[in-house]
Amino acid sequence: MSGRILRTAVALGLLFCVAAGVQAQTLALSFDDGFDPRAQPHAATWNAAMLDALAYAEVRAILFAAGQWVDTPDGLALLEAWGDAGHGIANHTYRHISLGSAKTTLDAFIADSERNEALLKPLPGWTRRFRFP
Description:
Blueprint: H1 3-21, E1 29-33, H2 43-56, E2 61-65, H3 67-70, H4 73-84, E3 88-91, H5 106-120, E4 126-130
Parallel strand pairs: 1-2, 2-3, 3-4
């Protein structure tokens, strides 16, 4: 398991332990990017483990997906699993570009966001939300 995934799993575990002892009115969990099955051979396993942990804790979350990492049949299947499990899928731009970069124009940023929305909109769990990269 990569360092980033391991840190995420540990953080989720700690969060669920802390949340069990706290009586919060609302708990919101969100995740960014999504797994890239082309670059991450264990993407399906990690995705399933995260969804299993959320189901075990009876927590709903939202995944802000960046299209460049999930724009394959396998990648979209991972996102579809989130929607099928009752979680939200939302927009994090297609190329994960920064509007604050001198290289990014507003028109390019909007086009990139619209490209990602078109990719994600057909998925179960789609909700029109946006998170800046």
